[in-house]
Each structure stands twice: as C-alpha cells, then as structure tokens.
Amino acid sequence: MKIGVFICWCGSNIKNMVDVERVAEATGKMPHVVYTQDVQYLCSEVGQSDIGNAIDEHQLDRVVIGACSPRMHETTFQQLMNRKGLNPYYVEIANIREHCSWVHTDKAKATVKAIDLVKKAVAKSYYAVPLHAESLPVNKRALVIGGGIAGIQAALDIADAGYPVDLLEKESSIGGKMAQFDKTFPTLDCSACILTPKMVEAATHENITLHTYSELEDVSGYVGNFHVTIRKRATSVDEERCTGCGECVTKCPAKVDNEFDQGHSKRKAIYTLFAQAVPNKPVLDRKNCIYFKTGKCGVCKKICPTDAINYEMEDQLIENDYGAIIVATGFELNEPTHLGEYHYGHHPDVITSLELERMLNASGPTQGKMYRPSNGKEPKRIVFIQCAGSRDRHDGNSYCSKVCCLYTAKHTILLNEKFPDTESYVFYIDVRTAGKNYEEFYERARQMGANYLRGHVSKVEPLGDSDNRLLVRGYDGSLGEQTEIEADLVVLATSIEPQQGAKKLAGMLGISSDRNGFYSEAHAKLKPVETQTQGVYLAGVCQGPKDIPEAVSQASGTAAKAIVLFNRGQVKGVPTTAMVDEELCSGCMQCKPVCPYEAISQEMITERAHGKARQRPVASINRALCQGCGACAGLCRSGAMDIGGFTGRQLLAEVDTL
Amino acid sequence: MMQDTFEPKIIAFCCNWCSYAGADLAGTGRLKYPENIRIIRVPCSSRVDSALVLRAFQNGADGVMIAGCHPGDCHYDTGNYHTRKRMMLLKSLMEFMGLDEERLLVKWISGNEADRFKDTVESFTSKLKKMGASGKVRDLRCAK
Amino acid sequence: MCKITEELQQIAAELLKEGKVDLVLGYTKGEQEEQSVPCIVTQPEDASKLIFDEYSEKALSKYLLEESFQDKKVAIVLKGCDQRAFKLMQDESRLGREDVYLIGVECPGMKWGEDLSPFCLHCDYRTPAKEDVDSLLTGADIPEAMQGEPLDHEDSFTDINRLEKMSKEERFEFWKRQLNRCKRCYTCRNACPVCTCRVCVFDRENPDYIDRAKDQMAQHQFYHVIRAFHVSDRCVSCGECARVCPEGIPLHLLNQKLLRELDKFYGEYQAGIDEVPTPLSHANADEPDFFGKEGKA
Question: Can you tell me the ipTM of this complex?
Fold first, then answer.
C-alpha cells in the first residue's frame, strides 16, 4: 500500500488559517504514506497533474486529499483516479476548508484539527475497498397509471419518442376529471374540444396500449425492471365484437344515478361513461344489472347484433415488464357533508363546483341550462363559497386546493355570459391568482359583475319562503360587518383530495405520501417529478393540487425522465451499496424490514461443512435498488452487513485516530 | 481553573445529506465555532451503531454527536426514525448504568441550518467544558 | 415422580422405539438434588433418565444449532420461554419446524436461589401454545406464588426501580462494583437462547470490537452494553444470562431495562410470541421523537 497525501491551500482560503506544510509533514509520518505535497489549488489543472504525476512517479495506489468538502470536489478527484487506472474509491478527502479553516479563528488550533482530519482520512483509506457501480439493462416500456390529462400527456410524449407505453385507467374511458369540465380558465377553451383529440390520439397511437376498466394488482422489481400485474375488470362486453352501436344501452331497462354527471342524470346499467368516451364501447355495471341481480332480463344480450355481450366474462390478470412507471392517478373531491354549516346534503340547492360544472356543460345533464335541483327553476342569485374544506385546520384540509379561485371566477364569467340576469356572490378568504393571465382573468370576472366578499360564511340555512330559497350568513370583511344574502343556489368550492386508494398504491410502488396523502416527490425543489423509488415518477394532482397546464408540464417532465432512462438503456446503481459477508450472515432477515428500498431478500447458498453440502439462507442485496443508507448495517448484530465506502472497519479506523 | 483550560474532544457523525451539508454551509458562511469537533461523514445517521459510539467514548471522546436530517426529511426516507429509536435506547442504557448520557447528543440539522449547526457545536462544547473530562466510560471497570 | 416427568419418559421411549426420532434432548437430575442438567437420550430404555422439574432452567433450544444435531431427527423438551426462543430461531430461518419434534411442558416456575425466578413470576407464557408443539404435557405442581395473575414487570424486577431511584453516581458505583467482577468468560452469551449469531462480533479479529491490544479493562462494559443491545428486543426473558454468571452479576437488569423502555415507547412486544420483525427492525414517523426541538436533548 502506497499512499500519497495532498494538502490544498485553496489559495489563501485554507493556507491563511491552517499551516499546510505542518499538516503535510505530520501526516507524512503515518505508516504507508510515501509521498506528501501541498498545492496551491488541487482542483485546478496544475493541481490535478501534480497528483497524476505523483501517482506515476511513486506508484501510489491510494490518494488522500486535504481540501474543501467532498461534496464539492469528490467527483473531480474520483475522475482523476479513473483516468489513472485506480479505483475511484481509493481517494479519501479530509474536509479542512468548510469544516476547519473557514470556521475557526485560532491558527494553531485549526492546524492541529486539520492534522487530525487528514490523519483520520489516511486511517480510513487503509481499509478502503474498490467499488464498482452495477449496470443493469432497462426494459424500454413505460406504464402510465391514470388516464387523465396528465397520464395521457405523459403517454403521448413517451410514445412519440418511439417507446411503447401502456396506459392504465380504472374507469371505462380515459379522460379523467378534465372530461367532466365545461370550459377551462383563463382562455375559456371548451374542455372537451381540447381534450378529446388527445384522447383519440392516445387510443390510436401505434405505441400506446390502453387498459381501461383496469387496476394495478401487484408491482415488484426495480428501476428498469418492474414486473407488474394488471387486473382488467370484466366488462361483460367482448371488445373485439362490439361495434359501439349503443343498442344495448338504449334498451337496457335498469336506470341508476350517473356518477359522471354527479347524480344529476340517470344512466343505464350497461353504459359508456360519456358520449365521447374512449374507447367508445359500453361496460356492464354488474352491481346494478337486473340480470346479475335477479338472473332475469338479458335484454342486452338478446338485442346485441354482434353477440358481444358475455355474462360469464371474468377479470383478466395481465402481466407485463416495464422500465419506468408514471403515476398520474389524480384526485377526488371532498364530499362536503361533514361541513354542517353549509347544509350540503340537506338542501338540494347546495351543490359543489363540479355539479355546477356539469350543469354548465352543453353535453351535461341539462344541456347547459342552469336549474335549481329543488324545483327545476333557473337560479337568479348564486352564492359561491370558497375554501369549503380547504385551508381549514379544524374541519378540513389545511392546504390550499389551488384551482378553486380561478374556476370560480370562470363560473361567474360563464354565468354572466350565458345568463346575464344572474347575480354571483363569492365569499373568499384570499383570491390567489398566481399564474399567467390569471390575475387578468379574475379582474375580468369582477368587472363583469361578480360580487366578491372577503369573509367567512358562518351558516347556510333554508330561508323558509315559498320558493325554498337559502339564506347565506357571512361576514363581509371589507365592510367589517355581518351580512346576509338570499340565494337560489349555493356552490361550494370543495377541497381536492388524494384518491381513496392512494395509500394502497403507494405501498405497492414503494413510494411515500406526505401528511395530506399526496405522493411525495424526491426533492421539493430539484426533483419534483421523481420519487424516492427510482424509475417511478409523478405527474398531475396525485402529487399535490395543480391546474391543467401545470399537470401537463409535469407530465411531460415525467416523460422526459422515462425517455432519458430508455435512451441510456441501462441503469447504474450507486457504488456505495450494502454488502453481505455470507460467512457471518445467518439469514435472520431482521435487516429486511429496515430497508426503505426493499433491496434485501433472502437467498439460499450451498456450503460445504463437515464433509457435507448444506443449504443455508443468507441476506442478499439487490445492488440496483440499494441506495447505500446503511440502516441495515447499523442494525446487523453480527456485523455481516456493511456499506461500501463506509464500512464498519473504516468508521472504526476514523474513530480510533481521533 | 481546570474548566478554563479543559478542551473537550467531540466526535460527530454527520449524515451526508443534511447535517454534513449544514456544516459545509456554516463554513461557506464563515460562521465561527470552537475547534473541538471532529466530523465523521456517514451516508445516513442510521449507519451509526452503538458500538461506534462506545468506541468513540472509549478512545477518549468527551462528547459524541450524531446529527441527521429532521424526521420526515431523511434522504433515505426512514433512516432517522431508526436512529432515534436506537439512540434513545442507548442513552437510556447509559443513564441506567450511571454514565453521562448527556455526552451523547442526537440532533436534527438540515442542510440549510448552518446557524443551528454552529449553535449546537457551541452549546455542546460549553456544556462539556462544564462537565469536565469524560472518565466514566473508561473507568467503569478500573477498580481503584 | 411428578406427572409431567412420567409422561415425558413415556413419550420419549415411544418416539425412540418407533424410530420417529434419533434422540431426545431434555433434562436429567444433576449431581446435586437441586440441580437438573441437559441430557441426550438415544435409547428407549434410557428414557427413564429424563425428568422435568423446577430446576430445569437451562434453555435447550440453542443446542439445535450445533453441528452434532444437524441431519438428525430430534425431539426436544421446551418450556414456555424456551419455545419462544425456538419460535424466534424459526422466524429467523435458523431452524425448520418440520425437522424437530417439540415436547412442550408446563413450567412450574424456576428456582432463583431459594426463591422463585422474577422472570417466572412475571411470565404469562409458562406453557407453550398447544398448536405450536407436537405434544403438550401439563399438570405441573404450581407453587402458590405462581398461581393467579403474573406480576407486573415493575413488581417483579424491583431492582430496576431501585436503581432508577439512585443518584447517577450511586448507579455508576453499583455497576462498577458489578462489572469489576466480570472475567469476560462469555458464559452469559453462550447460555442466551437468542444470542445466535454464526460468529459473535466479540470473537471476530477484524474489526476487533474488543480491542485486545488496548486498555483491557475498559472493554468489559463495552461488551455488556453491546450484549444488552443485541438481545434487547429479542429477549425471551428466560433469565439464563444472570443465572449462569459465575460472578453473580445481575446482567439481566440491563436487558430488562431496555425491554421496559421499548414497551413503554413502542408498545408491548414479546419476542417469540408476537410476529417478527422485532421492534428494532422497523421504525416509522409516528414514533416519539426524543431529539426534536422540544425533546430532552
């Protein structure tokens, strides 16, 4: 073992506070140290060639650097080692700038400390082991979970790059929440008009396979090599045979509330989700089907001209391998029944914004006509209540749902345009309009006559008049007094919430959720589409409330991540992973639940002992998954588990020199 | 008299992602703190086992600090949850054996909390100065 | 002869006669009346040597890991705590259940000097569960103190309370007195049924956790702290560590203290009864944070 020690002056940054010659001299006396040098700038080309020359001249096999933080230049020195044909993990860095010269004022003491730190690094390097990153091939196929606008965008981008994509959607059609909207802010584009072409493009794209009416059943594997099982629920309609003529839907005698219209219309037991559904083939809702409930009926089967109805159809399990998974599962809207003061669920004229959205929609339950659910008459005065369940620490979610301010402004504008004699009142806490052209849009709403009242609504109650109208009691902050408004319709801007099954899905994918249940990105600022699990990316509202353009750009971000991964064609793990000493490991697997990456599994090895071959279990590390945290090594009683670059022996050596 | 001249030796295990970065930031910001501390870089605070802590004490450390990301911020998601569980146990065992458990400091310091890093080092150093040299861990077995 | 011993001898003889097992691992009377020792019986006619009484304290399960027991069909006598240890070894893939015939016995409580073991007074798992063993022998003579509800941990390990009430200096002096007697003979480790590493860290040369070259004396408490740690969440509360110590050091207090802390903060867990993972093998956000801004540190 031949170690070279190099002490950097960092110009005056280190040299002014640390006697670099003394540091070099003191560490030069340590065993195996054959060469020392202090250099003005080790990171410079001159410094690098000094190290390179010394490696050649003195046949150094290990290098110890006393310089700035390894977080700064570790890779610089590792690359130099690589160029010199030495393993990059044979370089050890003592941080004598950030942790020493810059934070101390007594040169003598700082020098003593710098000597300690470099000695510690030398001691650690005695036990350095060469490390290599594992490379594994990537399966160049992506799975997108969720067929809303985010999922569709991600799928299209990846497919356009030439990679196959499977798009998974739990409903019978893709489109997601955006398909339910009427217009979009701030341009008032017709939602369906901009969404439907994308839906069709996704369905017809040669690289995209749709799996509608399907859910994720199981996920195993890791980045580049996920193995996924998809459950395709039985639709009772043979996709191949069905032409989508709609005869069955017309003739089906069973009527149930239409969820897509928020219960403001009826649908049949065999139905398509909405008129422009993609794929446009009906599914049979067995819960509400008369045949499935009583064994009698069978009208759809009799009427079908292509004999596509199959009551015996079973759920199908589809297994596939993917390199990357994009999660775009979207959101749900909170049912504001728990907010008793708003009377939702007790008075039919208290509705949610999405219900209003459906009413306004020309292809919605009323063909765009406004009506009061209680009596069918057109409402003249509408009160909007913002933050119904959002920004409410006590009875709701503490976070802001982000899109309500703008869509409410949109609603008041649409109402004003279509029904000029309606009055709109909006109770709000703050109006948040961050976004391009959003403030202008909100201004427009106000100019068009929407009455904005800053204040909290304390109660909504029946007025008790012959028209069964509502009385909204609130506080008008601008006047500083209580106010009462008689309303024909009250619209609640309900809170955006994670999907019911979000937690379960997170468990399957090995990703984490924040305290509100939205999926956590790997880094709030710099890794907004990645998750802690490599190869799993987040798009859209499942990661947190956002509007359509944000969801779309995030989706394209995830697509870019997946495409980068596919283009590279292989994944490189971190070199500093856990490693198992099989001789010591008893295979007790207490380390397994510690691992946040599920990188540890049990493996049988064959061992010859006392003249016999015997099988015994040991822990085994999947180096592609392991990120090298060392939680397992910190736990392992026998010391069988270790971390490359931070082995127990190395850390003990460091402790022992101090 | 003794207290004025006594310089405690502190070994700190800092997680690479938060506390080590916090210490780096203290340097970049030219904050000043006593020279007593020697930082050992670990990938995550959960890498530190009780044997390393004890070994540090036995080698004459007057204080040992384990610093990691704040709970919920762990780079590896759950590492510091393990750290706090294990170190709570170690500290209560030290206390039960009549050792100075205060000499083992567990602290959450994020990558941008340079001040918190500096304050921690300052207060820990002055506390150890008041406590004096740590003999107990080495003395426990040395009958007089 | 007590009922359990009688039935035990009968079962052992049958198992051996029918060739269901190669050997039976149990207890026999030692040289003194107040002593029972492990014994291996291979012939049906020797089954009469086997006994089970309030001196059969030694945990037998760990023997199954030894080389001489490999590839043999073994029947083993297990009382509650020993069966817990067996279950843990099974959960940790050290043993296969199908390879061993388990004879569960109802434990009357073991002697602890003149008295009953505090472990047994606290124990609510004296008898292995019927479904966990192949034969279960009950009908032990239960002393009065063991009848009724088991004692709380606090009431049975009163020494922990006593120590906790002492000043730090007194506690230090107490342990100094105790640990000064340690010769590091490792009997405590060897007797412990959950100390089952293939190679103990204290037997390893590199990294030498016990730094032999350095201050010899300082290493003892290092050993005891680490030992307590390594068994903390896996302790099956048999009490063997303290019982076998030739110097009479109350080592079990260290484990029991840790167990008490674990139970207090993370909920009760009984190794070898509750499912693995053991408490130290998992951690989550909801657990108490002692080191946060408001914490004691």
Answer: 0.95
